[in-house]
Design goal:
By secondary structure, this protein is α/β, with parallel strands linked by helices. The protein contains 15 helices and 11 strands. It has helices at 33-43, 53-62, 100-112, 123-142, 144-156, 169-173, 177-187, 203-211, 268-279, 285-293, 322-338, 343-360, 364-376, 383-391, 395-403, and strands at residues 8-12, 18-28, 67-75, 78-88, 191-198, 222-223, 242-246, 251-258, 297-305, 310-317, 406-415. It comes from Youngiibacter multivorans.
């Protein structure tokens, strides 16, 4: 079980062949999210010791094919930059080599000693990574379902949570090597959280190694004390639906709600079960009623952020079926509020949620990501705690959290009206 009372969390397990380390550095979504995305790629391109990404790869190959990455994800109001390395446990190395020290050395090398030329990042690498990020952002917006979900957040929220985790074109336009250097200097002296997983037999030794990643005395990473500054979402009030015309063949509809419930306040476990019954998969009411029974959409589902208290309902719909689909979605939500769902639906949804959590423990990264995200926010749930909390949810609690849902706004992608243009060449 993880130790939540120290600066370093441990998840001990002998079921995996690998051990893993995550160094999580949270930054605010109001900061330069796009810059941190680009910086994460630049840092992987070379260090003082390893001049190129190929040399980093060779070092990892020498560690029996270890894996290293810098993973970025939005968790509530924070962007998590996770320096992650997975490496073979000494039970399976050829000569019983212990790779913990080599893994820690690589993380420290990437965080503290990136390759600089004349005091800055190499200009051609910066340009390449900015261009790659531009292509990535464009690809996200080319996915019209994803675009629809992004836009409803932007239009319905007044705070920085509305910013997508991959950043914006506006921020990208202002990026350069000098700004990336400033972001790196800010990052390497930020608060950080360390999570270690695997076959940890000598916890004191591993803890001592990992503690070396913190370098507060020399202006480096500082020990994280837990993010207790949870900020409730700020929604736009009385906002009508927005229709955006595009050259598309399938309509898109996203509805935004405040749950008024999250993992910090209210009945989070019941919200998870409610969402599962309502729109959390192929067993849900939205899937079976709106899509299967009435054939009103190509896909429909609901999802929520447990750290922020925001829920979206997303659907791909024929243009002519917008109103019917919306009406039926609202009807199914009303059923959740009045208790018009069966005991079998409750049992099925609990079973699905618990199975997902149990299956997650088959992946070291997924387990670490789940536990460490909670730990950074000062929440000491284990996976077993969450399963137990879900099991105790009853009908009245599901109805209660459903009644707390508050509609905010909606965003529609509709078909562009292409009119014939007269030919006046006569």
């Amino acid at each position: 079980m993880p130790d939540f009372n120290s600066s370093i969390g441990f998840y001990k397990s002998r079921k995996f062949k690998n051990n893993a380390i995550s160094v999580i550095i949270p930054v605010g979504m109001g900061e330069n999210v796009t810059g941190y995305n680009v910086l994460s790629q630049v840092l992987k391109r070379g260090t003082e010791r390893f001049a190129t990404s190929s040399e980093i790869s060779r070092y990892l190959q020498d560690m029996y094919g270890s894996f290293f990455d810098i993973i970025i994800g939005k968790r509530g109001d924070k962007l998590f930059l996770t320096f992650y390395i997975s490496f073979l446990d000494n039970r399976f190395t050829l000569y019983g080599e212990d790779l913990w020290e080599k893994a820690v050395d690589l993380i420290k090398e990437v965080i503290y000693r990136p390759r600089l030329v004349d005091g800055g990042f190499q200009s051609d690498i910066v340009s390449q990574e900015i261009d790659d990020q531009k292509l990535y952002i464009e690809s996200q917006y080319d996915d019209k379902g994803h675009y629809n979900s992004i836009k409803v957040m932007e239009q319905g929220l007044l705070d920085s949570y509305s910013k997508p985790e991959f950043g914006t074109m506006e921020e990208l336009a202002g990026l350069n090597g000098d700004l990336l250097l400033k972001l790196w200097n800010d990052l390497r002296s930020s608060e950080a959280y360390i999570q270690a997983s695997g076959n940890i037999e000598d916890e004191n030794r591993v803890s001592e190694l990992l503690s070396g990643i913190f370098d507060e005395a020399n202006g480096g990473l500082r020990v994280g004390r837990g993010l207790h500054d949870h900020v409730e979402p700020v929604f736009v009030k009385d906002l009508p639906k927005v229709e955006e015309a595009m050259k598309i063949n399938q309509g898109k509809m996203s509805l935004l709600y405040s749950t008024n419930t999250d993992i910090f306040r209210g009945d989070y476990f019941s919200l998870a079960v409610m969402n599962s019954i309502f729109g959390g998969g192929a067993h849900s009411k939205l899937f079976n009623e709106v899509r299967e029974k009435h054939s009103l959409c190509y896909y429909v589902y609901s999802t929520f952020d447990k750290f922020k208290g925001v829920m979206t309902i997303s659907s791909g719909v024929d243009f002519k079926n917008f109103d019917k689909a919306r009406e039926l979605i609202e009807l199914e939500l009303e059923k959740m509020k009045t208790g018009d769902f069966t005991d079998e639906e409750i049992t099925m949804s609990k079973t699905r949620l618990k199975a997902t959590l149990v299956a997650m423990e088959d992946s070291m990264y997924n387990t670490m990501e789940y536990i460490s995200s909670l730990r950074v926010y000062g929440i000491d749930y284990t996976i077993e705690d969450v399963i137990e909390g879900i099991e105790k949810v009853d009908r009245d609690r599901i109805m209660a959290v459903a009644r707390r849902l508050q509609y905010i706004t909606s965003h529609y992608l509709v078909k562009e009206d292409v009119s014939d243009v007269s030919d006046d060449r006569a």
